Amino acid sequence: MGAPTKATILIVDDTADNLSLLSSHLKSIYTVKTVNNGDAALRIAFSDQPPDLILLDVMMPSMDGYEVCRRLKADPRTRDVPVIFLTARTSVEDEKFGLDLGAVDYISKPISPPIVLARVKNHLSLKATADSLRATVEEVRAAHSRLEETQQHLIQTEKMAALGLLVSGVAHEINTPIGVALTAVSHLSGLVESLASQFQNGAIRKSDLARFLENAREGTLLVTTNIVRTANLIQSFKQVVVDRAGSERRVFDLKDYLSDALFGLDPHLREAGHSLTVSCPAGLTIDSHPGPLSEVLSILIRNAVAHAFRPGQSGRLTLSVMPREEDWVELRLSDDGRGIDPEHLPKLFDPFFTTRRGIEFPGLGLYIAFNLVHQVLQGTIEVESLSGGGASFVVRMPRRVSALAEASA
């Protein structure tokens, strides 16, 4: 490593003796530059290598020290360079005026070189500390920016994972009626081919035609029923996706919406050996954001499947919905799993907290759910657990979100 670079001191004074006196005392420690007017001082200050500190005489012809200081502090390149005024003006008003302009110190003439040297050392030390602090702040800001970008990426990944799970579940549900319809159509096609062959051979009988009509009637009914079921599934899926993507507020029947929003999770629950029972009063209408509500419930259910049960254990999940006082509603998702360790309870909704670290579990699901409940649904979310006795996530939300709160969010 090379030797540390000397700090550069710019001395500005229209008196040659003062320049010589100060320079002789400072040049053994610092790199010293001297000029005798304000214009020359600004040219050096605004150059590619500005000084680290400026000793500035106040009373100079053409441009006094106050104006030089004002221009230095107005320019981003030099506003942080310490300026020490050197002047014969000793009134409190003069000193206050200089400090108000941005100077860091005020030394009265006649000049005492040891005093000047001590002040220069102190202010260079303060500047070094300030520069280091600014650099640290910039590093922290950059790190915070990178953290926010990473967090947003992980949040988006978590949301896409939830949507992907829904899409997969919907595809599984749609495959069943589509498969039945295809089987029925294939069977009908065989019947048509058989009847056509009999007709061409002149061997068709009345009983053959009657049997064909009966089979055709059953087949077309089967096809129609399953195509209608598929259309309904697709329509429900479209509504859920629109709600999740747009987060639009609307009035909806909570029981009907839960049936649509959660059906895509059934295949995954069954595959994992779990069951979900939903209990919700009929006719319970909500004026809120169905998309975020669906996302919250999806996150809570996925969290339960991933964490509540031991490997190979089959479990039961129950979603109970109850109206509460003052037009609130409570949604309680409970499981009969192993419960949550008490030391984990206070941290469950913290970002990046997870008991299963990995790409599949970045620790953002419950954090996203917490923010959706508080910021969008204007409610609260809590967790209740007894170790070894299952857990319950309780969402309480108003049946009608506040327009005033939405505007201020």
Automatic annotation (TrEMBL):
- Record's catalysed reaction(s): ATP + protein L-histidine = ADP + protein N-phospho-L-histidine
Protein name (record): histidine kinase
> Coiled-coil regions in this chain?
none
Q: Which UniProt keywords apply?
A: Phosphoprotein, Plasmid, Transferase
Q: What class of enzyme is it?
A: transferase
Q: Name one GO molecular function term.
A: phosphorelay sensor kinase activity
- Locate the 4-aspartylphosphate modifications and list their residues: 57
Query: Keyword Phosphoprotein, does the record have it?
Result: yes
Keyword Phosphoprotein among UniProt keywords: yes
Record-annotated Response regulatory domain positions: 8-124
* Alphabetical list of PANTHER family matching this protein: HYBRID SIGNAL TRANSDUCTION HISTIDINE KINASE C (PTHR43547:SF2), TWO-COMPONENT HISTIDINE KINASE (PTHR43547)
Which superkingdom is the protein from?
Answer: Bacteria
**What's the Enzyme Commission number for this chain?**
2.7.13.3
Report domain Histidine kinase positions. Answer: 169-401
